[in-house]
Amino acid sequence: MPSIRLAEANSNLQPTYMYLFTYRSTSTYRKFGSCHGMELPFVFGVLDDLDVILFTGRDRAREAVMRQVQQAWVNFARTGNPSQPGLVWPRYEQKTRQTMQIGITSRAVSDPNSAQRTLWDGLPFDGVTPPAVDMWTLVWENGSP
């Protein structure tokens, strides 16, 4: 939620882009799925490191995903816009919440995971309110994590 709330605030001030990394690991070591941090080996181009292979698996599509991710990051650094030929990355705005799903098939989607996001509507989020203890109480009382 912090990244969505930050994007909401930032999008009122300047062009903002959101992504959801959806590549799913094919590792036979563990079922990582599309976990937090999965995009990092793709960003830094270290897919052939043995530790990374344990994490991402050996799917042949990894190289294409890596090239796409790296090009988006380079384009953003150079121009402020991560779009590339064949993949238009729309700006994030609260009205449409356009988010780039990056994976074997990449595409812009409107308001992904909206059901989970709307559960947090009405709760202030300024890094102080509500206190962390109250948030964790809410999480534990509702059967997560």
At a glance:
The protein has 145 residues and is mainly alpha-helical. The chain has helices at 2-11, 40-44, 50-56, 62-79, 114-118, 132-141, and strands spanning 19-21, 98-102, 107-110.
Overall description:
38% of the residues lie in helices and 8% in strands. The chain has a 3-stranded mixed beta sheet with strand order 1-2-3, with helices on one face. It has 6 helices and 3 strands; from the N terminus they run αβαααββαα. The longest helix has 18 residues, at 62-79. The chain has helices at residues 2-11, 40-44, 50-56, 62-79, 114-118, 132-141, and strands at 19-21, 98-102, 107-110. It is mostly helical and 145 residues long.
Order of helices and strands: HEHHHEEHH
Terminal Cα separation, in Å? Answer: 15 Å
Main pleated-sheet profile: 3 strands, mixed
How many domains?
Answer: 1
Give the DSSP E fraction (strand runs of 2 or more residues).
5-15%
Estimated radius of gyration: 17 Å
**In percent, how helical is the residue content?**
25-40%
Uncertain segments: none
Supply the number of helical segments.
6
Shape, please? Answer: globular
Strand order of the largest sheet: 1-2-3
Which helices and strands appear, and what pairs or packs with what?
Elements: H1 2-11, E1 19-21, H2 40-44, H3 50-56, H4 62-79, E2 98-102, E3 107-110, H5 114-118, H6 132-141
Parallel strand pairs: 1-2
Antiparallel strand pairs: 2-3
